[in-house]
Amino acid sequence: ASICIMEVKEVHSLTLKVMRLSKPVFQLAPPVLCEPEDIPGDVLAISPFAPAGSTVVPGVKPGTGIGTDGFGLTSFLQLPNSFGILYLGETFTIYISVNNNTLLDVKNVSLRVELQTATQRIRLFDNSETPISTFGPNESNDHVLHHEVKEGGVNILSCAVTYTKNDGEKKNFRKFFKFQVMNPFTIMPKIHTLQNTVFLEALVENITQSPIFLESIRVEPLDIFTCTDLNSAPPVTTPDSIFSLSRDIVYLKPNASRLYLYKLTPKEPDSVDAKNTNVIGRLEVIWRSAMGEVGRLQTVPLQRKLGQDDLDLTLGTLPSHIVLEQPFAVQCFVTNKGTKPVSPLLCVVKGHGHDGIHVNGHQVKEVGMLAPGAQTTLQLEMFPVKPGMQKVGGLALHVFDQNPPSGSTQHLPRAYNFHNLADVFVQSG
Questions:
Q1: Max CA separation in the chain (angstroms)
Q2: Residue (of 342, 333, 315) closest to 415 by Cα position
Q3: Is the pTM of this model over 0.90?
Q4: Lowest mean pLDDT segment, chosen from 85-99, 154-168, 381-395
Q5: 3-class DSSP state of 272
Q6: DSSP SS3 for 71
Q7: How many angstroms separate the CA atoms of 331 and 315, rounded?
Q8: What phi and psi, each to the nearest 5 degrees, are found at residue 308?
Q9: Does residue 367 or residue 193 have the better pLDDT?
Q10: Above 80 in pLDDT, residue 368?
Q11: Is 274 helix (H, G, I), strand (E, B) or coil?
């Protein structure tokens, strides 16, 4: 005969209840509308949620749903019936209740609450050092815990209860709650360096499922920089995605974005650290949800690319009238943005779609010695060979290492390529 083994679930004297506390939302009710000539007439013009004795507003077309009721928005608040969505930077608020549902006392009741992320374990509450000595029948021990979520992905809330029964037996149990933390924004930074001045563009896009209010966006620069906010002008408004409630708060619909601009200047103009550092600071965003919940998000350190900007090549003013097969002169400005003196060579690079305008004269020119921060001017003559829109470029600056590695037989230069410096229109003669 076969033997049937049944697993008996252990019954504890205490119960644990965990609930997320969040703001209520407005209750929605689909509106019922009609035309004035329909049978209901002006009956539907009075909201079912309006105070007793309300009448139709004079001058308002009956049944048109004028007011919030026409959008299905009532004056009632509804508590959320699910965990909802938790976004990075929001404050995670939970209500925890430990209850004694038996008719006997229990002793030494302790509760430990931890939040486990992908990289760390955070203790939110622990009274194991000072447990509840006596926990009587039908008593409850309640706690409201707050934690600012700073790490996205899967988070696990762990709750452990330890107690001693009336007969002296020690008991314990745990409960785990897994939830996902979403990112509310995509922040796309672009960093531009102009000599010692750094310009930061930050495109902030709302990727949540509901509108949000941007309350504050600021840069926390390194100590060697001073940040200037270039967004003091009234924000640009568009009727379908963005409008401003004030000069500081911006309403952002789902999938809408907004661009911010900042200028960072070194506190000491000739600071070597400001020229060589690749980290410029962090970006902090503070926002509110539709029901007023506050969120705070801070980006990782913003980094800029160094090395390629040691040498810069720009063009002066180009002629407004360029004719096919008629040469024209161009001024080239070469700037040393590095910290060491260099003596580059200006070379012509073939290909890369620059066959419409050629460079007259020698294909290699000596620029001369450039001290750090110095700039020199070269004159070039261009010869257009194709009509229409053409690119001016195909130039490169080559710098040879003054101290090559010992034993090397070839001195390969460092190349700084400038394939597209300008676009011009060439008229056919």
A1: 107
A2: 342
A3: no
A4: 381-395
A5: helix
A6: helix
A7: 6
A8: -70, -20
A9: 367
A10: yes
A11: helix
By the 10 Å C-beta count (0-12 exposed, 13-18 middle, 19+ buried), 178 is classed as exposed
Length reported for the chain: 429
Look up residue 412 and give its DSSP letter: P
Return phi, psi of residue 45, to 5°: -75, -15
Element of type H or E holding 275: helix 272-276
DSSP string, 122-152: EEEEE-SSS-EEEE-TT-EEEEEEEEE----
Between CA 402 and CA 413 the distance in angstroms is 10
Burial state string for 260-288 with b = 16 or more CB within 10 A and e = fewer than 16:
bebbbebeeeeeeebbebeebbebebbbe
64 versus 326: the higher-pLDDT residue is 326
What is the reported pLDDT for 273?
A: 78
94's tokens:
């939970």
Residue 83 structure tokens: 């965990």
Which residue type sits at 405? Answer: P
When pLDDT is cut at 50, 70 and 90, the band that residue 283 belongs to is very high
Structure tokens that stand for 210 in this block:
């509901």
pLDDT greater than 70 at residue 210: yes
Q: Is the pLDDT confidence value at 39 over 80?
A: no
- Per the model's pLDDT, the better-predicted residue between 303 and 270 turns out to be 303
Distance CA 216, CA 285 (A): 6
Strands (E), 79-139: 86-87, 91-100, 106-116, 121-126, 132-135
C-alpha of 109 from chain center: 43
Q: What percent of the chain has pLDDT over 90?
A: 25
Q: Which residue from 191, 135, 189 is spatially nearest to 161, judged by alpha carbons?
A: 135
